[in-house]
Design brief:
96 residues; Lambda_DNA-bd_dom_sf; mainly alpha; 434 Repressor (Amino-terminal Domain); Helix-turn-helix transcriptional regulator
Length: 96
């Protein structure tokens, strides 16, 4: 998933509008729109400001970790089930 795709998805998830986001970042709405469309090269500082306004962080991911990060971003992380009861809790439940 491309950076711009992730950025557009985050804008939608946060429920903000391009106008509101542009105001927070301090750029003109047409400039934000062309940035989100990928129609011009955008400075890193602008991307950093957009990410900050969306309560996110712009990071580089080494290729050897990219597959794991993509799984997390897609909600397919195979991490621990934090809602599952611990073994000790299950053991204590069995006691009369």
């Amino acid at each position: 998933m491309s950076f711009l795709t992730q950025l557009r998805q985050l804008v939608a998830q946060r429920g903000t509008t391009p106008t509101r986001l542009a105001d927070v970042v301090g750029i003109a709405r047409p400039n934000l729109t062309t940035t989100l469309a990928g129609k011009h090269d955008t400075r890193g500082s602008t991307l950093e400001a957009i990410a900050g306004a969306l309560d996110a962080q712009w990071v580089l991911v080494p290729k050897e970790h990219l597959a794991a990060v993509q799984q997390v971003l897609e909600g397919r992380d195979a991490g621990p089930d934090r809602a599952a009861k611990a073994a000790v809790d299950l053991l204590l439940e069995k006691k009369p």
